[in-house]
Specification:
Blueprint (H helix, E strand, L loop, with lengths): L2 H8 L4 H5 L4 H8 L1 H21 L7 H16 L7 E3 L2 E3 L10 H12 L6 E2 L4 E2 L4 H11 L3 E5 L2 H13 L3 E5 L5 E2 L3 E2 H7 L3 E5 L7 H7 L4 E7 L15 H10 L3 E8 L18 H6 L4 E5 L10 E5 L1 H8 L4 H4 L3 H15 L7 H7 L2 H20 L7 E12 L7 E10 L6 H10 L4 E6 L2 E5 L7 H12 L4 H5 L2
The structure holds pyridoxal-5'-phosphate.
Amino acid sequence: MDVRLQQIMRQIPSMDRLLSLPWVAEYEKKIGRETIKSLITDLLARQRERIIKDPDTAFDAETIAEDARRLIEKKSAPSLAPVVNATGVVIHTNLGRSLLAKEAVDALTAAAASYSTLEYSLEEGTRGSRNDHVEWLLKRLTGAEAALAVNNNAAAVILALSALAKDKESIISRGELVEIGGSFRIPEIMSLSGTKMIEVGTTNRTYLKDYEDAITEECAVLLKVHPSNYCITGFHSAVTREELAALAHSRGLILMEDLGSGMLIDMSQAGLTGENDPTVARSLKAGCDIVTFSGDKLLGGPQVGVIAGRKDIIDKLKKHQLLRALRVDKMTLAAFEATLRLYLRGEEQAVPTVEMIFRKKEDLLPAARRLARKLKALLKKTKVQRCLIDVVPVRDAVGGGSFPQSELDGCAVALSLPELGNSGRLAERLRMSSAHVIAGAADDRVLFHMRTLRGKDEERIIEALAEILCIGKEDASDA
Ligand SMILES: *Cc1c(COP(=O)(O)O)cnc(C)c1O
């Protein structure tokens, strides 16, 4: 190392110097001194590398100390943190999809904190099956002969294809060879399951004859897949479930549909209809032998995947070795059972996902006006000169790949504070505030969509803004 580089390196603050800073003690209680040391070691190593790469890199001891503090502060707070979803996307995959109903949270907590009947029959005093807790409910709610819950819908598809079509052929329309968020790609999933994918038709048009011509001795499954966020409009045609079922059954094949989102009730009242998004019951009634769907999309429960349909098929899946690796844990099962019971009682409006989808624009308006008023009152207490606060109509979305074409009429509070920078900068400060408000944006304004706000979320938005504008908590709460 040359002399100049050595000199620069000496300006990097030492471990001891950083450890002696006054704020360290507070974090030491949270993550321990050794963790703090290792974080600082890594940070200093990165800084040295940067200098070796480019000795002219500008830095000062204070910035490094501040970087260290920020890093340590971040590691001291939970990483999986609650956020305010002000995006208007109800089933927001990145924000955790569905929220659980209170009943489901209570059931989950009880199962977590206590021994339970997870795999125990009280009558017999012997081993029971964990699937029994939800199977009868799923049968009741979908009309299926049998049902099986697994870790998620991806697992449901893999288990079903592995058990039914491994080393055999499965036929699928080219219009359904989709990739769903998080790199769930149908061709890869089929190959992983050991089934040979036989593509038929074209991207936009597939006919019954295409399926017919592709059936060989090796064929086991006709697979239909919900195209999720992707939709084909214009010059296109697909084969109906009824036609596919008649073909499959006349040739001794299984018709399987991956529905993606599992809808247990008709949602046409919320403006949601479409051949592509049938209820689970409707898909089974149309002749699908088994269907797979998620528990945490439209259904509004915890993360699970369900396979529902013919009993002889489900029995086969229940005996498959893969099931042991894909099974559902007790907390999830408890939450799922409680969610399904809400449907059973006709109380699906208590399921947050369902309730938020059914919210009408008129119902959202009073809350939007109230939030706008509170924001105005808050801004009056600051030196901010220019601000724009408005209640505006917006288009919300179901999310989770369901009903990609149906938007929901909603309303939002639009906010712009040019003195604090553009809307991107304001959105970032809202995200990074203690309340972690995730907002939408349009026309250089930040949008708080009312549809997905719940409980104390409005107060959290006010708090976040007060924090950004450096107003004391008490002052903010009289806003
Ligand atoms: C969402 C989705 C999946 C994956 O479901 P997960 O529950 O996320 O595993 C699979 N197929 C379709 C069609 C989907 O929409």
